[in-house]
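Our consortium's second objective concerns turning raw sequence data into structural hypotheses that experimental partners can test. To show how far this objective has progressed, the report includes one record in full. It was chosen at random from the queue rather than selected for favorable results. The single chain below, 111 residues long, was entered without modification.
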Amino acid sequence: MKKTIPWFKNKIIKINKKDKIYYHSLLTIYFSFPLIIKRIIEKEMKKFNIPRNYLHNLLKKKIENKNSNITGVLARNDKKIISKHLKSLKKTKYYGIYKEILKIWSDYENN
């Protein structure tokens, strides 16, 4: 790895061969899915004349803040607003991802 990516400074960690595909799946979720979602939502937000940099700057500040956490309706577990969100998304392609991430988040928080 060090030869192919000279800037890589992290310690090399050996992963059991049987766990490598799961590990790689998690990396794909971690590194690619947020960017995919970010790009899709930025495109959708154009409908509201929200400048791309506005969202980008807010997200950047949130990510850079080491004390930052999940906020808003998810942090409050505001079922009334979440239900409204789901209703507004019902006939869109985003309904499934919103609902599934809520389920995964709930399972995570309850374990």
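The partners drew two points from this record. The mean pLDDT is 87. The radius of gyration is 18 Å. Both points have been shared with the crystallography group to help prioritize constructs.
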